[in-house]
Write a structure and sequence with these properties.
Blueprint: E1 6-11, H1 15-26, E2 31-35, H2 41-46, H3 48-70, H4 82-106, E3 110-113, E4 116-120, E5 123-126, E6 129-138, E7 142-144, H5 158-161, E8 170-174, H6 178-189, E9 193-198, H7 209-221, E10 225-228, E11 232-237, E12 242-246, E13 251-254, E14 256-259, E15 263-265, H8 272-275, E16 298-300, H9 311-326, E17 340-342, E18 348-352, H10 355-362, E19 365-372, E20 386-393, E21 399-405, H11 409-421, H12 426-430
Parallel strand pairs: 1-2, 1-6, 2-3, 6-16, 8-9, 8-14, 9-10
Antiparallel strand pairs: 4-5, 5-6, 7-15, 11-12, 12-13, 17-18, 18-21, 19-20, 20-21
Helix pairs in contact: 1-9, 3-4, 3-6
């Protein structure tokens, strides 16, 4: 036994922190996890899970329309009840919180409730109690960024959006990242009037340009008022509504204003300065390829490092760290060819490089594109189009990017991500038989580069 209370003290019980703690304990380490809010972190409580449940709820109106218009179903009056959904959603989140507690208990991890603050390189204090640890892992995640403008106290972030007592009939959403896009589509599907503003010329910066343009076109078909090159400069509250003044001098009124203008690493009041832990120019904890900070025994994973802010990535980083520290199996996390989805309507699925990234890395590339109405929509008046794109390194014939906008894009791209990870070539795609009739078969029948 060492002179320390724990071999590993984890600050933050989100997906990454819990996975690192569980695996480390499974390898025989003495582990504690401190959490001041909720088990499961952003993903379980105010992120992936409740967001996906909202996506499911918001899609039924379209499904009812399609069933009645094109497929012969007769439907009675339909009505969405926000309070019922929120109650059911909260019940599921509470169940998941309990599962996370059970995962910690079953592996012998000590759960300490409260805000943890680093005292020195080997000491952490929680609620007046000091603990010592051979290694410290920071996995505190990120927090919504709210701009410093007059009246910002009247707006909400994505955190509060999951707990609104009433569904806003008119909502203004500010931001152009995936969170803003997803909430715009969700609330539109549930019947709210939605205006989405983004300060730049096209939203979803970092995604493939064709994907961004295609989704903007599809979103507008759903009567979402999407406006680019605009931002909010101030907000005023009246007795019955909120009024936002925009950069062009115009004003918009809404029942609610949601800012989804990015998230920042949650590093405040952690006592990082007491141990000399350095931050990078984005305010994230600077780490090397092993997730180690500049202090040899202090590590960080997940959104607080601002490397690739996705739940599966944080989990992967946690597993790698546990193996490296306590299983005599050094593992560095891999951040290339990570598949991702945006649960917009229609959703995005993507893996590998964008066209711009591929041209920069390889120079000569072949681009394969397809856009079509899905079979499901041919019996209805829906003009929604599915978009697919392959990016191929011309020299090696390897498929280096695969992108989709359309129903079940996340499910489809997950499978193709295995092929991309394995280095599949366009010839491999061409020699694979498609499942007919499906949208996914389009990826293996694209023949002519654009």
């Amino acid at each position: 036994m060492s002179d320390f209370d724990f071999d590993l003290f984890v600050i933050g019980a989100g997906s990454g922190g819990v996975r690192a703690a569980r695996f480390s304990a499974g390898f025989g380490a003495r582990v504690a996890v401190a959490e001041e809010r909720y088990l499961g972190g952003t993903c379980v409580n105010v992120g992936c899970i409740p967001k996906k449940l909202l996506v499911y709820a918001s899609h039924f109106a379209e499904d009812f329309h399609v069933a009645q218009q094109g497929f012969g179903w007769s439907l009675g009056e339909t009505r969405f009840d926000w309070k019922t959904f929120i109650k059911n959603k909260d019940g599921e989140i509470q169940r998941l919180n309990g599962i996370y507690q059970g995962l910690l208990d079953n592996t012998g991890v000590q759960h300490i409730q409260g805000h943890a603050r680093i005292v020195d390189a080997h000491s952490v204090e929680v609620a007046g109690q000091r603990y010592t640890a051979k290694n410290i892992l920071i996995a505190t995640g990120s927090w919504p960024n709210m701009p410093d403008i007059p009246g910002i106290e009247h707006a909400i972030s994505s955190n509060e959006a999951f707990h609104l007592e009433e569904q806003p009939q008119r909502i203004l959403i500010v931001g152009g990242g995936y969170i803003a896009v997803e909430f715009a589509c969700i609330l539109n599907g549930l019947g709210s009037e939605v205006i989405q503003l983004y300060r730049g010329p096209l939203f979803l910066r970092g995604f493939d340009d064709d994907v961004r343009a295609h989704l903007a076109e599809e979103i507008r078909k759903r009567d979402i008022d999407l406006r680019f090159d605009l931002n909010v400069v101030s907000i005023e509250k009246t007795d019955s509504e909120f009024c936002a003044t925009l950069t062009d001098g115009s004003q918009l009124s809404a029942d609610q204003i949601l800012f989804a203008t990015g998230r920042v690493p949650l590093t405040e009041n952690l006592g990082l300065e007491n141990a000399g832990v350095k931050l990078n120019d984005k305010g994230a904890i600077a780490v090397d390829e092993t997730s180690r900070s500049n202090v040899p025994n202090i590590y960080a994973i997940g959104d607080v490092t601002d490397r690739m802010n996705l739940t599966p990535v944080a989990i992967h980083e946690g597993v790698c760290l546990a193996n490296t520290l306590f299983n005599n199996t050094p593992m560095n996390p891999v951040h290339s060819n990570v598949p991702a989805a945006v649960f917009s309507q229609p959703p995005i699925g993507t893996v590998g490089l964008t066209e711009a990234q591929a041209r920069e890395e390889f120079g000569a590339v072949d681009i394969y594109r397809s856009s079509f109405r899905s079979l499901r929509n041919t019996l209805t008046d829906s003009q929604e189009k599915t978009f697919m794109k392959l990016i191929v390194d011309k020299k090696s014939d390897r498929v280096v990017g695969l992108h989709m906008v359309g129903p079940e894009a996340g499910e489809i791209v997950q499978g193709f991500a295995v092929a991309i990870k394995c280095g599949a070539t366009k010839k491999d795609f061409d020699s694979t038989l498609g499942i007919h009739p499906t949208s996914a078969e389009e990826f293996v029948t694209l023949r002519e580069p654009g």
